[in-house]
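Please fill in the sequence for the structure shown.

STRUCTURE ENCODING:
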């Protein structure tokens, strides 16, 4: 597994524990008929690339990735080892799969989000705060490589509701603090 989270992330640890438990219910027991090798890369793209290379050299039967950047790093290393992804925001737009119905290649997985949600976020904000005049989409370009899939619906919905759409790419915490420091409520 290539996890795009810190090893100290309790929620990510619970996901891995649940995964192991479900495998065991299906008869897959670590140390008996399955070996699970996990790499925790946090949100560091360089670590993800290094760990992806390490995992491919182990000649594994299957690799699970847990984010868009982790999946991108893994697919840069292999187009033959089967890869299953979770938490990938736009697998088609990211070029990981040909389509959701027929992924093709060596990769498939699960996606909790899709591009039209960009517009839904704006609609929801306008519904709960009808006088909102501006909405800002904050994202880290290094981690949100899928953002293009959300921008069209985000901008189009904002325009249709008479709301100014603002894009705010932030690369680190200091940039986030500067950006959020300028936000008016």
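FILLED IN BY: designer on duty
SEQUENCE:
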């Amino acid at each position: 597994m290539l996890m795009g989270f810190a090893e100290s992330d309790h929620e990510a640890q619970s996901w891995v524990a649940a995964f192991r438990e479900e495998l065991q219910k299906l008869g897959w027991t670590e140390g008996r008929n399955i070996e699970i090798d996990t790499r925790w890369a946090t949100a560091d793209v360089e670590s993800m690339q290094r760990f992806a290379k390490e995992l491919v050299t182990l000649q594994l039967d299957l690799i699970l990735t847990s984010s868009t950047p982790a999946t991108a790093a893994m697919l840069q290393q292999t187009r033959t080892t089967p890869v299953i992804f979770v938490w990938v925001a736009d697998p088609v737009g990211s070029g990981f799969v040909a389509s959701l119905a027929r992924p093709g290649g060596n990769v498939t997985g699960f996606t909790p989000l899709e591009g039209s949600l960009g517009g839904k976020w704006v609609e929801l904000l306008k519904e709960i705060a009808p006088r909102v005049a501006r909405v800002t989409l904050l994202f880290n370009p290094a981690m949100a490589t899928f953002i293009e899939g959300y921008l069209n619906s985000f901008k189009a919905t904002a325009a249709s509701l008479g709301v100014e759409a603002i894009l705010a790419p932030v690369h680190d915490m200091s940039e986030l603090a500067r950006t959020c420091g300028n936000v008016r409520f």
